[in-house]
Amino acid sequence: MISELCYNYIVETFLTAGSLSKKNKGRDFLSKTIKTVLSAFGVLMIWGLYLVISGCSMLLLDDEFPDFAFEKTDKELLVVEDALYPSLESSIDQYIADLNEEGSTVYLYIWEEGTAFDLKAVIETYYTENGIGGVLFVGNLPTVWYEQNGFEGHEEFPIDLFFMDLDSTWQDNDKDGIFDYHSALELEIFISRINGTTLELMRYFDKVHKFRTGQMDIDPSAYVFKDNSWEDFKPGSDFGLSRIYNSILINEKKGDTERANYISKLTTSGAEYVYQWIHSFPPLLVVEGSSSWEYIHTSDIISGNMKGLFYNLFNCSAVRFTEDNLGMTYLMKTDYGIAATGSTKTGGNYYPNAFHYVLSEKGTWGDAFKGWYNYYGVKDDKWFLGMIILGDPMLVLTKEAQKGLKSLSVGIVPPSPDEIEELNKEILDFGYDYSGGSFAEYKNQNPQFFGD
Ligand SMILES: [Ca+2]
Ligand SMILES: [Ca+2]
Ligand SMILES: [Ca+2]
Fold it and tell me: Is domain 216-433 in CATH 3.40.50.1460, yes or no?
């Protein structure tokens, strides 16, 4: 579209210049002075043409950054596990009051019992009757599972996209209780989760209240940590974060991606937005050190009280919420974490530019996920079918962070097939032989979600 407009503009400019020069030829009585003026004008024309062309090429580059219409969500459904509700009531009242203050409406539903299908039916009703744009599950609420051939052959994982696409079809063809087919997806809404003890959840709601009222003491800044395996993937790129933050630290050179760098950054100044590329298992980051693998356990996140507010976790299985996991640890067991995105299986968001675009345009965390998934995530099930969000999905980045500048950043074009093949290779080279608990274990631990 933009290139076509530029093309037409350039052609028109040439045509105009051409008709001028013809007129010049027909007027041999022109004085030398007039000729000089005209040649000066010609120089100006060429200069103008140069500006048009260079302007177009900038626009063409800029066009690579996702730029699509989205509507900021202002109606949320809050589904709260009934056993938790009495203790959380005042926290939830505060949360609803804060959202009302922002101009959003919150519908509250107390979840008593049922299957994932019953839960989806509740969501569909609120979508149809109240026009909700997103949902937050509070507590242990059901999920469905999916199985497919992924990086290491068979993989099975909890899948929240099921709740986000309200007119999709899902099938379990081998009748083992795990979906193995879905129709083409386009999300209508987003859903997110928080889960923990009553005290952890109260502390979480307290954090989001503090954030909304400007009491969270972290500089508007981003931290990108890209470990050895991805040092050569889009080197120097901040993945569009320079549209949001003035201050960005990128650790991506081997000497800068040691466990100590990560710990040091996140236990001192921290960052509002953390985008980390590290091999991992649900409760464990595995950093490639100079001479050995270095581990960061969930216990290190807790003891270090890691200072990040929003986490984009390119860490395999980091938000596998059906067991102890990194994502929920940042949110439930530190004084800072309030939202995360990541995968419940092997995978992660390697091209989050659409996600960052929505955030830069003051969209909510949930809007960013839904916008990114429909724009890019939908293209690759192997990488993205386990992608979800955790935390309050109605959060937007701090006002200081929403710079909204249209500055260009390095490496904003989508990865090529060769680059994606390299990403696949790094996953296979690492050799994930365990990615988390099974559906059978989940079912045993949560018989209340299954009607049999
Ligand atoms: Ca199946
Ligand atoms: Ca749909
Ligand atoms: Ca490293």
Answer: yes
